[in-house]
Target: Alpha/beta fold hydrolase
Amino acid sequence: MFRKVSTLLIASLLSFGANAQPKGKREPLVTQEQGSFLVGGTTLTEPGKFEVANALKPQGQTLHGDHAYAFYQIPVKAHKYPLVFLHGAGESKKTWESTPDGREGFQTIFLRRGYGVYLLDQPRRGEAGKSTVATTITPTPDEQFWFTQFRIGNYPDYFPGSQFPKDTAALEQFFRQMTPNTGAFDANIVSNACSKLFDRIGDGILITHSQGGGIGWFTAIKNPKVKAVIAYEPFSSFVFPAGELPKPIQSASLFGELKGVEIPLSDFEKLTRIPIIIYYGDNIADQPTTVWNKDHWRAGLEMAKIWAATINKHGGHAKVVHLPDLGIKGNTHFPFSDLNNLQIADLLSDFLRENNLNK
Amino acid sequence: MFRKVSTLLIASLLSFGANAQPKGKREPLVTQEQGSFLVGGTTLTEPGKFEVANALKPQGQTLHGDHAYAFYQIPVKAHKYPLVFLHGAGESKKTWESTPDGREGFQTIFLRRGYGVYLLDQPRRGEAGKSTVATTITPTPDEQFWFTQFRIGNYPDYFPGSQFPKDTAALEQFFRQMTPNTGAFDANIVSNACSKLFDRIGDGILITHSQGGGIGWFTAIKNPKVKAVIAYEPFSSFVFPAGELPKPIQSASLFGELKGVEIPLSDFEKLTRIPIIIYYGDNIADQPTTVWNKDHWRAGLEMAKIWAATINKHGGHAKVVHLPDLGIKGNTHFPFSDLNNLQIADLLSDFLRENNLNK
Model:
């Protein structure tokens, strides 16, 4: 899979258009700095005093857990605001790295476009596996469910024109990249760690996927250093001011009806002060259907539109983009790693530019 | 934390001495390619037929697990052999990234020195969390034990002259970077996945830490694409030909006596065909003592010397380096992230050059 390249032409890098989609070899990446750290979390301390002679006893010992993990890369001459990427349920930061068929993911695409990029593993997932609560992990054959839930198709059939690569190796990578919780998902713990990340790095832009969507809203409420939120296919945890909850949306979703979450108006208003954009892909029903995956996402898309309208009614700047409305067809639940992910990246670049976030 | 740099001079990168230890800002990293993938593993399939209408039932569904995860970066004009890094017990690929106090780890140091770098999460750890076996994870306060076991000192005291950074933030990072198994450790599964990685990437050099040491021997036995092994502080799983097992080494280690592992001579001989080097740090007893951490590693170092002598008796090329013998003092169980890790990296660079592995 590796391309042998022996030339190094920085000049060509600098002339590399943001929207170019080169086939074959890529120009070198030029990075000022990269690294990783743990951020946020809590500490348990067992009462008593630690004694080296009794080091296998817990007395006086600590457990640090519930932090997030971040891997970051900062390009030379970076834009002012870095991009912080948070994965969805069952995923890790891998979501944003190489696509299942080995193309560049948003991590590298946006590094090329001059943004500092932070990829998070949320608390109790991936490299941030150390949890303060116990859990049991049971291997469960469920990948055909996820294939269908994530709108690659209705297993074993791909949706016609699906933007998911059709080779079996790519599908195997997709299945293997899921990784379990090492402790129960806790939106408060995850958003606390995300907020601590922004305390550490300063102003930036938060990009979420799926279950991460709710974390995006909570983090932006907790921390004004979040200067914009981009959400790919959020589903749960749409937050509304007290007294303005819409009625639950019924659907054929296997997850049941979709409810909003009530929060104080003063918190909700914090979300009206930043630009927010939400993207949904294709094969979402436009009216109720018994096809449960298409109907699940119909409910999500409908709730997202109600939510954005509520944000905007309160003076905010939220927008919902249903990609087929732009003529962009075939996207799954993972538009940022689909075959047309450079086109999806271009939309994000446009959003950042239009909101003067690409300084 | 980020340094602003506005100049980009590839010439200065190319003239950047391998052993330079610049203070302050670093030259930009120039990378030809980066990405990630899952490799190896197995697949469970539940009998029956998957039906979209019964998608929450396991029938006909699969679970892909027990793979490794790899994040790779290939510099421009890379040396012929990439370096593959495997972490130890309780750790992830984070081990090789930023040090606990935020300096560059071996990932970035060796990328700067022109090597392709692959960091692995072994099966059932980190981003490779999907396991084919169930497990229960119980939060256990044990960090003061690990501080001591890993020879940072005898908690709460640092060893005099310890190369571990003394600030509390670094120690917190160190504690948080440990991450649990999501399934039982299985040396055969881990070495199978490592071997599959070499099948994918071709010839390369394997660098292991601690528990990963045994995986290094098993991987090199399984796959002739492993052209050298560098092991930092291996402990268990020293392999000997049938009939040549040394007697177990008694010590005050909390893990009990240290035994070798018997393997067929034909497998052992595969380890005599490649250069192998083993490094141990400081504060290891030179004779039996009741100080259990110093004595644990005395047993490891003694066994390593017996092992290397056995390799060499069979015509191999193994060497054990006890860093204090070179006048390098204060190293913990993690020499590659200690304060003097550039000096430790220089030793590795020397080894690669001396063995013509830096082509």
Observations:
- Chain A touches chain B through 92 residues (CB under 8 Å).
